[in-house]
Amino acid sequence: MNYNNNSINYKSFVLFEKDLSSKNISSIYLTDSSKIRVQLKNGTTYETDNPRTPDAKETFLRSGINVIESYPVNSRQAYPITLMVISAVSIIIMSLRSSERASKRVFSLDSLDATAVEDSSYNFKNVAGNEEAKESVKDVVDFLKNPEKYASYGARMPKGIMLYGQPGTGKTLLAKAVAGEANVPFYAVSGSDFIQVYVGVGASRIRQLFKKARNSSQGKAVIFIDEIDAIGKKRAASNSSGGSDERDQTLNALLTEMSGFNEKEGIIVIAATNRLDMLDPALLRPGRFDRHIEITLPDIASREKIIDLHLKNKPTGNIDIHEWAQKTSYFSGAKIENLINEAAIIACKENSETIENMHMDKAFSIVLAGYEKKNRAYIRDVDRKITAYHEVGHALASLKILPNEKISKITIIPSTKGAGGYTLSIPEDKLYENKDYLKRRIMVLLGGRAAEEVIFGPNYITTGARNDLQRSTNIAFNMITQYGMGKTLGLLNMQELYDLNINQDEIIKECKKLMDSIYGEVKNIIIENRHCLKRITELLLEKETLYSVDLDNLKLSTTLK
Ligand code: ADP
Ligand code: ZN
């Protein structure tokens, strides 16, 4: 996620080590940031990953390298005096606000104006897994190559794409790959670069950014805005502080620029956020960021691809990639990359010719310790099991009770669709939903909880069913109070009766009775099909995501009772 220094080359740690051992390095700028800058004796500079080991400085010093513990001064940019003043003032303001953040800010200030990188070395091959996301941006690549063709068909391409998902899942990587595949310049900025500066500066920076992109050699470009929430957060109703004024201006400038360019221009704005629901709806309207693509954590098959990719250019010994894919559940791509880098560093320190399983093991403990509390590895296994049984509970209920609804995906990888995991089925198209169908829907919603109870016992049911219970209560309540499907109100509609002060106790009692009886039914189905439940769950635990073909392959229809 480093694009503050687009003009600086990046070298892998392994190549850096080569420079180190052949004594090519003159200086190293060692800071606490994720990358360190390296200057070679022949004058070239590049960045590599910061090993962050306690004895790094010592190692470098011993090799006769000049170690400078600060960020490099950017000599290629001679500042006009006014800019210097602005920087100085904002540095003071920022250090007043937060001295901790200030140092990082200073660094990004000198490279705030985004320089394009025409780095066609990035392409879809650099993005392992994420198949659905890649599929969703393929037409955009084609559009960037041939905007006129699309225009001649009158086709409207999205101007903006919103990538959302947890940090480190490869959103930046995918955006770079789009630019690389289409062979157009890539301009990257971060939303946080636009705030905490003088009012009006953010907006003018946005305008400059778009101007640059338009004036690029081909007039085509990918503009990438990371952390878009920094400028595009939902506006609080009662917010009139100066800070938000600045944000509004910046956001408005962005929206204006986006509506300013037309379909024939090959400019695509890709933004990234961790939280789609935090964004100002104005950003997500048609003609703005109207294509939303979720980037999820990788499942086991994707993790295998990511591990493979990152090991590829490194000297490796006997590493069982499949086993490592299993061990790294819930890891993001960035975390996997970090693990492998850590292993490479350990192998190097031990002067081993290749990276071995043993180095991966050591790196794994380091990475885990850095990322989460102790014992998490154990808890994680139990959690996975609960999630898996819960999700298969839904799936099994659905297979049995709503056989016409195809289950397209069961997964235990968390996403915005569900904190633990989720099961997706495609409902049949119909205009009306009848009473029988609504009962079945509730049954499927309660299937998750029922499976937990049947497998782990009534004392071990979890909070994971909360959302299911909310949704099923809503359906049951509507059946009785809105659709005239209950006994207490009969055909009366509760909304119309509100003023009459009706007795709600009766209604709640009836809702409860309905839910209880439906729960009893689905629990029986789960009990009768326990072995099916276990079979599917075992496969789910192994593969983490199951698609309809996987379910077809199990040939459950013959065993389902
Ligand atoms: P995000 O923008 O979502 O926070 P990044 O794109 O910055 O994540 O990912 C950080 C790093 O993690 C990448 O540079 C890459 O090394 C690694 N990475 C993440 N996802 C993947 C992936 N799907 N395939 C290969 N590498 C990945
Ligand atoms: Zn559920």
From TrEMBL:
Its EC number is 3.4.24.-. One of its GO terms (biological process) is proteolysis. It comes from the Bacteria. Keywords: ATP-binding, Cell membrane, Hydrolase, Membrane, Metal-binding, Metalloprotease, Nucleotide-binding, Protease, Zinc. It is an enzyme of class 3 (hydrolase). GO terms for molecular function: ATP binding; ATP hydrolysis activity; ATP-dependent peptidase activity; metal ion binding; metalloendopeptidase activity. Transmembrane segments: none annotated. Residues 157-299 form the AAA+ ATPase domain. Belongs to the AAA ATPase family. In the C-terminal section; belongs to the peptidase M41 family. This is ATP-dependent zinc metalloprotease FtsH. The lineage of its organism: Bacteria, Bacillati, Bacillota, Clostridia, Eubacteriales.
